[in-house]
Amino acid sequence: MSLVFQSLVLGVLMGGLYALLAAGLTLYFGVMRVVMIAHSAFLVLAAYLAWTFTVHTGLDPMLSLLVTVPLFFALGVAVQRLLVARLRPATLTMMSVLLTFAVALVVEGLLGFVFSGTHRRIPLSYSGARLELFGASVALVKLIAFGLAVVTLAGLHVLLKVTRFGQALRATMQHREAARLLGVDTDRVAGFGFGLGLATAAVGGTALALDSTIYPSLHWHWIGPLMAIIVVGGLGSVAGAAVAALVLGVGQNLLQLPLGTTWAQTFFYAALFLTLILRPQGFFGGRLAQRF
Amino acid sequence: MRSGSETFVKAAGLVGLAGLVVAFPGLASDPFVLSVGVVIISYAVLATAWNFVGGFTGYISLGHAAYSGLGGYATGLLILRADVNPWVALLLGGLVVAVLAVPVGIAALRVRGASFVIVSIALVLVLLLVFQSWESVTGGSDGLRVPRPFDADVLRPEQHQRFFHLHAVLLAVMLLCWWVIDRSRFGMGLKAIREDEDKARSLGVPTVRYKLAAFVVSAFFTALGGGLYALWFGFLDPIFQFSILVGSNMVLMSLLGGVRSLFGPLVGAVVVGYATEFFKAQYGDTQMHLVAMGVLLAVVVLFLPDGIIPAVRGLLARLRPGQASIREVTQEELAAEVRR
C-alpha cells in the first residue's frame, strides 16, 4: 500500500514537470500551429547550462535561471522570427516539424561536440536529502523541481489571464486574423509566444538537471512522452495538457511497480494510440485540434 | 506537347542510368567503394519506399525506420528461429510488416499534419523500447546476428556485388510501381489528397482507403529494403535499426531530390549518401555529422522545399519558349497566383 502511495506521489511530482514542458509546447502550437520537436533538445541544453554554471561557479544551479530564462526567451523569439516565420503558410505544419527537428539535431550535435557524450550530474550538497511526505519518502530535489514547475505554471497562468500581453496572446491563439483586425500585432505576439515557450524549457531543464543524469541524446526520451501528452490532452489546450501530464505521469509511475521502468515507458505510447483510435482530437482539445 | 525527341532523350537517359547501375560493381576500384555503393543504393531504396506515402499523399512520416527495422528483424528472426530460406524470409518479412502496417495506418492516418508526424515518431520510440527489452526473442541490446544467405565460399567483394544488384532490382521494381501509380486513377486520388484532402473527399475520392493503401505499400517496400540490408550487413542492433535518424534520412533525401518526382528520392539518396560517407571517411564519426545533417535539412526545408529536380526543371523551362495552356498546378502555386 505504502509503495503504491509512494509511486502516486512521485507520479504527481513527475507530472508537474511534464505539465510545465507541455505548456511550452501548447504555446508554440497555439500561436503558430507548430509542433516544436526541438523543445526537449533545448530542455537538455538548459540542463547542460545549469551544470556548467554550477561546476564553474560552485553556486546553486537554480541561480542559472537568471541567465537561461532571458537567454531562452530571446532564442525562442529568434527561432520564430528567423526560421518558422519564413515557411510557406500552406505547408507550415508539416515543414515546421521538419525544421524544428533539424534544430533539435543541431542542438544535440553541438552539445555532443562541446560537452562530449559523457553522462553528467550536478554535484549538490542536498542531493541525498529526503523528506517524509504523508508517509511517502521523497527526494528533496524532486520536490524542488516540482515547486519550480508549479511556480512557473502559476506565473504563466497569471501572465496569460491578467496582463494585456496575455490577452493579446490568447487572442492570437484563438483567431489570428480577428486579433489582427483588433489591432494586435500578431507577428510580434507570436514571437513572444515562442520566447515564453522556450523559457519554460529553460526552467524545466534546470529542474531536470537537479535530479537526473544528463547526456546529449537524452532529449529523445522526452520527445515521446511530451508528444503523447499534448496529443492525449488535445493540441492547443493548456489545461488539457496539464491534466494529461498528471494522469500519464501518475500512470507511468504506478505501472513501474508491476512492469519495471522500461515497459512502463510504453504506457505513454499506448495512451497515444488509444487516444487516436477513440478520440483523435484529444480528450480536452476543441475545434482547433480537430483540424491538425 | 510531348515531342518524339523528348521521349527519346528520356529513354536514352533511362538506359544510361540502368547501364551505370549494372556496370558500377565492375567499375568500383576496391571493395570499400563497392560497400559504400551498397549503402547508397540501400538509402535510395528506403527513400523511394518512403516516397510512396510522403510524395503521393503529403503525409510526412519521420518514423519509417519502424518498417525498415521491423523488416530486418522479421527476416532475421524467420531465418534464425523458424529456419526459413533467407529469400522466402525476406518476402515473408515484408508481408508481415505490411499486415502490421494496417492497424498502425488506421490509427495514424486518422490525424493530419503534426499529429501524424508525432505518431510516426512515437512508433519508432516504442519499437526501440520493445526490441531492447524483449531479449528472449530479439536478442535485446546485444543485437541479432543474421546469417548470410550465400555460401561461405562467396567472398566479401562478391557479396557486395550481388547485394548491389539485388538492391538495384528492388529499386527498379519500386520505381516501376511508382510510375504506374503516378499515372493511375489511384495515384490521381492520392495527389488530390496531398493538395487538399477535404476537397478530394468532397469529389468522391475514398481518402481513407487510398491513404491506407499507399501507407501499406510504402511499409511493405520499406520492410523489403530493411530486410535486404539486414541480409547484407549481417547484424541488427535496435539502437541503429529503430533510430529516428534513419527515418529522417529518408525524409531528407526525398525532400532534397523532390518528393513529386519519380527519381527525386534516388537523386537525394546519392547526394546525401555520398556526402555522409565522404564526411565519415574524412573526419570520422563525430557529433558534427548530426549538426551537418540538421543544417542541411533546415536549408532544404527553408529554401528548397520542392527539391533539386523541380528546381532544375524550372530553370530549364525558363529557357524554353511557350508553355501549354493546361499545366499541373499545386494548390500553393494557385493561391500564390490569386494573391498576386
Briefly, what is this?
Chain A has helices at residues 2-32, 39-57, 65-83, 92-115, 140-162, 164-174, 176-181, 186-211, 219-233, 238-259, 261-278, 287-290, and strands at 130-133, 136-139. With 292 residues, chain A is mostly helical.
In percent terms, what proportion of residues of chain B is strand?
under 5%
Percent helix range of chain A:
over 70%
Helix content of chain B: over 70%
* Helix count from the secondary structure assignment of chain B: 16
Largest sheet, strands/sense/barrel of chain B: 2 strands, antiparallel
Secondary-structure element string of chain A: HHHHEEHHHHHHHH
Which pair of protein chains has the largest interface, and what are the residue counts? A-B, 52 and 46 residues
Q: Rg of chain B to the nearest angstrom?
A: 20 Å
Which quaternary structure do these chains form?
heterodimer
What portion of residues of chain A belong to β-strands?
under 5%
- Order of strands in the sheet with the most strands of chain A? 1-2
Sheet with most strands: strand arrangement of chain B: 1-2
* Form type of chain A: globular
